[in-house]
Amino acid sequence: MKKHNFYAGPSILPKKVVKETAKALKNFAGTGLSLASISHRSKEFVQVMSETQDLFKELLDIPEGYSVLFLGGGASMQFAMIPYNLMKSKAAYVNTGAWASKALKEAKLFGEVHEIKADDFFHLPKNFDLPKDIDYLHITTNNTIYGTEYKDDFDVNVPVIADMSSDIFSRKVDISKYAMIYGGAQKNLAPSGVTFVIIKNDIIGKVDRQIPSMLNYKTHIDKESMFNTPPVIPIYAAHQTLKWIKANGGVEGMNKKAVKKAEILYNEIDRNPYFVGTVGNESRSLMNICFVMSEEHKDKEKDFLEFATGQGMVGIKGHRSVGGFRASTYNSLPMKSVKALVKTMQKFEEKQG
Q1: Which CATH number characterizes residue 217's domain?
Q2: What is the pTM of this model?
Q3: Total tally of structural domains belonging to the chain
């Protein structure tokens, strides 16, 4: 039976990326050595690192004055590195869910945090006022657990830091409006183990505190992500994914497919009497589509999950904190998987009579 992978992360990768990475694990770049045992300072891997950075800059149209870094520790490490490097005394955080909450918690260790939050995480705070004395504004553009997403760039008079772990490369972004963009790669880019950071060089070096070498962005900028051994295999997979994105229409091509996939699935959720979306139209994510059983059919949740699993749907159970269902429609998810899920929802409706 064909499996359709809707996991939120680690998540689906293009078949070509998996195939090329598997080949490199056996024989990397014709060296006769495995990618898993090659020196990160070999000319073959240095070339991969350089090309991966160049593809980031090309596909995202990153202006001069920014560095692209590949680090360890996941986005969670960045929650601490950001205030360590950038907060003098005060920052504003838009709290849109679990991951934004964790970032905010870490920031409080370094200074005052002005929190911006809607009544619940199924809605995004918008048109809010910012204090004038903040060092930066931190946002999480896509909420994987609740299924909300900011689809427009923030245009404010303070440096903007954005966690784009789950929607990077899915839509056009004006990088010049951000001081830093970061994210774990395991949703739209690569296997888990590498974190990407796009950082404006002139925002660092402005705090008075001493920063340990490994936690200092300047260290990694100066050493071009080679201060210590980088996560070689995920970086190679990211390189392959970026080549795949470029060959399939770039970010614009990814966005067209993302909009279409989301439209197909949201239309079925809105049409089918057994399901209801959890997020209002204006905030609905293109990457993580969340829904629950309708009020009159709440007792059918377990039945639908079992039925969908039997139809080859994998990873659609909602996050344990919210329940229901979640279909992650990242760039690598084929359109046929979305259509298969829609057909499964229709079959379930018919089966109930």
Answers
A1: 3.40.640.10
A2: 0.97
A3: 2
